[in-house]
């Protein structure tokens, strides 16, 4: 094997680990804010969310690759009957707006976030997770990946915090690295779908059939995300 | 210069100033009917709407006045004011009847042709790209038509299912095309005008399509999508013929 794929896998892992540690730091800030705002109360209400917008806006300002950021709460810790999804999105260059969701169960456009994998996986494993690429219909309405971390106050699961990354941004970031590999190569998610490919052989979104004998799969060294680099032997 | 062909004329066709307010009313009404905008939601500001639609302020205000008259939106003053959607519009039977009478069979077939292209491609790509979570969502939505208490709800459930297949295909363009096609014909399919369309059968066909997508049987999924659209088109044509025939009889009296 030529050294390129291994070097490329290292470079990709470094990039994703930087994202992961920044999302972890953001989640830490969110946790601290919530703990302070709650001051021992056990249910989240509008006052407990003060300052979250500022944190999310700062994260977006400091991370141009992220298109959305915020926190989502478990219905178990919410005062009201309705979900709480505090998410800000860069709708245009330089413009950050709060995303509006239909959070009324049974509503026409009900955004049932507690069933979405970026929530369920983080809740079930207690670890960071990456979901996508997916078309976030009724949410950001964009083709994105969502990177989340669960967060806990006083040992209790509160929800997840994290960011959205546009598929196009990852393409820009990963392509130079993937182009350094001779032959077809792609970054593949935990369920075996292509995130970015360096040729028409691996198209974003498509499942890679596991039967190809000439292929080599290198796991990226990024905890819990299940990412791998696929290339030719 | 040579005379443009009929396709080229599409490029140069005039932009009807007087119909622009109607077009805005139409867009917003369809968006609410499809569930893209919902009751209680606030529309963007008048300035933002004029800019996005590319119309003069007077044209936009004319459109909003029309929507207010129909009771679909309400404008509130004050700090938390704005124009809010207050009612789910129902396309009056008269308007749907008029559509069937004015639209030729050739045009209905052509809508079906475009829809077949979009739906078959979406079904094929969904096979290649769906994850377990997507399948669960599609299964829930597939039954929607059978559970709907009224034709309007049924039409919305049907539209939502087809849009979600395109979402599962992960193509923003196919999704946009599917949304546009659903806005055009979704409500007409379930219009209680002539013979009733069977919601149970639609649900069964949706579920069969979801199974094919779940099991990555792409040629079967495409075929199921094509058969489903063909049956829809036949129903639209039947409705047209029934209404047209009834009108002729009345005229002959």
Descriptive terms for the model:
heterodimer, A: 233 residues, alpha+beta, Beta-Lactamase, 2 domains, six-stranded antiparallel sheet, four-stranded antiparallel sheet, 28% strand, B: 253 residues, mainly alpha, Arc Repressor Mutant, subunit A, Four Helix Bundle (Hemerythrin (Met), subunit A), two-stranded antiparallel sheet, 12 helices, 71% helix, globular
Q: Which structural class fits the helix and strand makeup of chain B? A: mainly alpha
Q: What is the highest CATH level, the class of the largest domain in chain B? A: Mainly Alpha
Range of helix content of chain A: 25-40%
- Which structural class do you get from the secondary structure elements of chain A? alpha+beta
- Share in β-strands of chain B: under 5%
Multimeric status of the protein: heterodimer
Radius of gyration of chain B from the CA trace? 20 Å
The name of the CATH topology of the largest domain in chain A is: Beta-Lactamase
Q: Count of DSSP helices of chain B?
A: 12
Number of strands of chain A: 10
Which protein chains are joined by the largest interface, and how many residues does each one contribute? A-B, 19 and 21 residues
Number of domains of chain B: 2
What's the story with the biggest beta sheet of chain A? 6 strands, antiparallel
Count of helix runs of chain A: 4
Keywords (chain B): DNA-binding, Transcription, Transcription regulation
InterPro entries (chain B): GntR_C, TF_FadR/GntR_C, Tscrpt_reg_HTH_GntR, WH-like_DNA-bd_sf, WH_DNA-bd_sf
Domain HTH gntR-type (chain B): 18-88
Protein name (chain B): GntR family transcriptional regulator
Description:
Chain B: This is GntR family transcriptional regulator. Chain B: Residues 18-88 form the HTH gntR-type domain. Chain B: Keywords: DNA-binding, Transcription, Transcription regulation. Chain B: Pfam families: FCD, GntR. Chain B: It comes from Arthrobacter humicola. Chain A is α+β, with helices and mostly antiparallel strands and 233 residues long. Chain A folds into 2 domains: 11-165, 2-Layer Sandwich (Beta-Lactamase); 169-232, no CATH class. Chain A has 4 helices and 10 strands. Chain A has a 6-stranded antiparallel beta sheet, with helices on both faces. A 4-stranded antiparallel beta sheet of chain A has the order 8-7-10-9. In chain A, a hairpin with a 2-residue loop joins β2 (85-92) and β3 (95-98). The termini of chain A are close together. The model of chain A has no long low-confidence stretch (mean pLDDT 92). Chain B is mostly helical and 253 residues long. Chain B folds into 2 domains: 6-85, Arc Repressor Mutant, subunit A (Orthogonal Bundle); 93-252, GntR ligand-binding domain-like (Four Helix Bundle (Hemerythrin (Met), subunit A)). Chain B is 71% helix and 3% strand. Chain B is built from 12 helices and 2 strands, in the order ααααββαααααααα. Chain B has a two-stranded antiparallel sheet with strand order 1-2. In chain B, β1 and β2 (82-85) form a beta hairpin. In chain B, α6 runs parallel beside α11 (199-214) and α9 packs antiparallel against α10. Chain B is globular and about 55 Å long. The model of chain B has no long low-confidence stretch (mean pLDDT 88). Chain A binds chain B through residues 100, 102, 107-109, 115-117, 133-135, 137, 142-143, 191, 193, 205-207, and chain B through 35-36, 38, 41, 125, 128-129, 131-133, 136-137, 156, 163-164, 167, 170-172, 175, 216.
């Amino acid at each position: 094997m030529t050294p390129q794929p291994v070097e490329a896998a290292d470079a990709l892992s470094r990039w994703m680990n930087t994202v992961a540690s920044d999302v972890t730091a953001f989640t830490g800030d969110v946790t601290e804010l919530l703990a302070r705002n709650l001051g021992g109360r056990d249910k989240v209400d509008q006052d407990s969310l003060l300052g979250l917008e500022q944190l999310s806006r700062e994260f977006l300002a400091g991370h141009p690759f992220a298109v959305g950021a915020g926190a989502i709460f478990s219905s178990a810790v919410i005062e009201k009957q309705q979900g709480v999804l505090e998410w800000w999105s860069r709708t245009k260059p330089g413009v950050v707006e709060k995303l509006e969701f239909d959070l009324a169960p049974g509503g026409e456009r009900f955004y049932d976030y507690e069933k979405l994998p970026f929530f369920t996986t983080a809740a079930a494993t207690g670890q960071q997770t990456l979901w996508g690429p997916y078309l976030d219909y009724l949410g950001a309405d964009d083709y994105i990946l969502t990177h989340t971390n669960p967060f806990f106050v006083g040992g209790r699961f509160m929800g997840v915090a994290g960011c959205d990354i546009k598929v196009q941004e990852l393409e820009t970031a990963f392509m130079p690295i993937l182009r350094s590999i001779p032959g077809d190569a792609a970054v593949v998610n935990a369920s075996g779908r292509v995130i970015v490919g360096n040729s028409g052989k691996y198209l974003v979104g498509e499942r890679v059939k596991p039967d190809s004998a000439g292929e080599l799969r290198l796991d990226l060294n990024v905890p819990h995300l299940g990412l791998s680099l696929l290339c030719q032997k | 210069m040579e005379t443009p062909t009929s396709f080229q004329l599409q490029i140069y066709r005039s932009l009807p100033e007087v119909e622009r307010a109607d077009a805005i009313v139409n867009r917003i009404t369809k968006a609410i009917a499809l569930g893209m905008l919902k009751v209680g939601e606030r529309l963007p500001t008048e300035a933002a709407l004029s800019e996005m639609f590319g119309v003069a302020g007077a044209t936009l205000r004319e459109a909003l006045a029309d929507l207010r008259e129909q009771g679909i939106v309400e404008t509130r003053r004050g700090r938390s004011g704005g124009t809010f959607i207050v009612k789910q519009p129902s396309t009056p039977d008269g308007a749907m009847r008029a559509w069937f009478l004015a639209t030729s069979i050739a045009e209905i077939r052509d809508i079906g042709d475009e829809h077949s292209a979009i739906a078959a491609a979406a079904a094929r790509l969904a096979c290649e790209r769906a994850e377990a979570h997507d399948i669960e969502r599609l299964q829930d939505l597939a039954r929607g038509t059978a559970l709907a208490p009224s034709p309007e709800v049924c039409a919305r459930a049907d539209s939502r299912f087809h849009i979600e297949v395109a979402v599962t295909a992960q193509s923003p363009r196919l999704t946009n095309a599917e949304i546009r096609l659903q806005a055009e014909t979704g409500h007409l399919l379930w219009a209680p005008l002539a013979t009733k369309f069977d919601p149970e059968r639609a649900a069964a066909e949706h579920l069969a399509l979801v199974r094919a997508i779940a099991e990555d049987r792409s040629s079967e999924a495409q075929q199921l999508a094509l058969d489903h659209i063909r049956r829809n088109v036949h129903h639209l044509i039947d409705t047209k013929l029934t209404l047209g025939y009834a009108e002729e009889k009345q005229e002959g009296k």
